[in-house]
Amino acid sequence: MKTALITGISGQDGSYLAELLLRHQGYGNVIGLTRRKSNPDTVNLKELVDHPSTLLVEGDLEDGGFLSQLFSIYKIDECYNLAAQSFVAYSFKNPIGTLMANTLGTMNLLEAIRHHSPETRFFQASTSEMYGGFHNDPMSEKHDFHPRSPYGTSKLAAYWHTVNMREAFGLFACNGILFNHESPRRGSDFVTQKIVRGAAAYKIWKDSGDGSEIPLLRLGNLEAKRDWGDARDFVRGMWLAIQKDSPGDYVLATGIARTVREFVEIAFRHSSIDTQITWEGEGEQEIGKDPEGRTVIAVDSQFYRPTEVNALLGDWTRAREELDWKPEISFDETVNDMVQAALERAG
Fold first, then answer.
1. Is 120 or 271 the better-scoring residue by pLDDT?
2. Active-site residue, selected from the candidate residues 3, 7, 106, 127
3. I need a labelling partner for 156 at 20 to 30 A (CA). Which of 37, 132, 163, 179 fits?
4. Catalytic residue among 16, 27, 80, 151
5. pLDDT band at residue 48, thresholds of 50, 70 and 90?
6. Structure confidence at residue 306 (pLDDT)
7. pTM of the model
């Protein structure tokens, strides 16, 4: 039975992937790498911490010696590198830390594999942010890259290093170019979680009827378009990529781009909230109102990026043809699941 190493196992992708491997693919062991924290974040690992085939190991991808020891001790058949500093806005504030986590971490993993476990199959979680969003046409594995953030540049360096290690040393090293993907387990810093928390807060305020001040959801660019998929679909694509006879690079996407505005409207239309948002004004003066005319959403310039990525749209033809992969969970279903989870957490 196979043993898999998942870095970033406590995140949405890592936790869903671990559950997929253990429940549906029959893996003997899943080793999850987590960062040392005084307050460990295990909210996504409820179903894994007591699983007899799960081993959680504390460590840092920037520590090459630790990784070499890890691959020397355990026979690791597959390694999924999902750990990253993935919050784009924060990468502008801490570009060096972002580079260390995303680029150096990937290089250390691949060096440990090359010297201590060259038969290990490696999957690198790359990102659509490498493209830069200059075009509205669907972007495939053949498109040029032009990242617009320190996060994008750090992931691009890791992408090319993965390709280079495959070509130079014959490692089974593949990239998944992941377009935006969400789930109820999405990290709290991301705008999608901010939106569903805002919708949940509005619902609770409306139901309370206590006369308190209405919660105001402040957002940046409502016209930014993203190709939003579901993490539960994407982890299946990661697994399929690493099962191929030879390694390659694959875009995972849905082929449909939607605006932040559309995400907001669906979140507030959720059956538990049942609120239609109407818009007034434009640009940084735009506001969203509920059916009673109360302002519940406001555009705030502080949430715009220094360099904006206006549109990201993916062409997942290669994944469909070579991996027999396709997205199965609809956008509405993803958003509704996120809203329901936000309501449960708030309640």
1. 120
2. 127
3. 37
4. 151
5. confident
6. 78
7. 0.94
pLDDT digits 0-9 by tens, 3-12: 999 999 999 9
Between CA 236 and CA 234 the distance in angstroms is 5
Number of folded domains that form the chain: 1
DSSP, collapsed to helix, strand or coil, labels residue 18 as helix
Rounded average pLDDT over 207-222: 89
Tokens at residue 266, please? 């669906």
Mean pLDDT over 201-226 rounds to 91
Asked whether residue 75 is assigned to any structural domain, the reply reads yes
Q: Which residues contact 214 (CB under 8 A, 6 or more apart)?
A: 202, 205, 294, 295, 296
| Cα distance between residue 204 and residue 272, in whole Å | 10
Q: Is 119 a catalytic residue?
A: no
Q: Where are the alpha helices (DSSP H) in the chain?
A: 12-24, 64-73, 88-93, 95-99, 105-116, 150-169, 191-208, 231-243, 260-269, 317-323, 331-346
- The parent domain of residue 67 ranges over 3-184+229-255+312-329
Of residues 19, 78, 129, 182, which has the active-site annotation?
Answer: 129
- Mean pLDDT, residues 129-144: 90
Residue 340 is assigned to a structural domain of this protein: no
Q: Which of 53-62, 109-118, 149-158 has the lowest mean pLDDT?
A: 53-62
120: CATH: 3.40.50.720
Angle at 269 between CA 265 and CA 274, to 5 degrees: 145
Could you tell me the CA-to-CA distances from 44 to 8, 16, 18, 292 in Å, in that order?
11, 9, 11, 37
- Residue 151 designated active-site: yes
119 within a domain of the structure (yes/no):
yes
Q: How far apart are CA 260 and CA 224, in angstroms?
A: 6
Q: Catalytic annotation on 129?
A: yes
Tell me the C-alpha to C-alpha distance, in Å, between residue 327 and each of 135, 226, 236: 23, 15, 9
* CA atoms of 34 and 41, how far apart (whole Å): 9
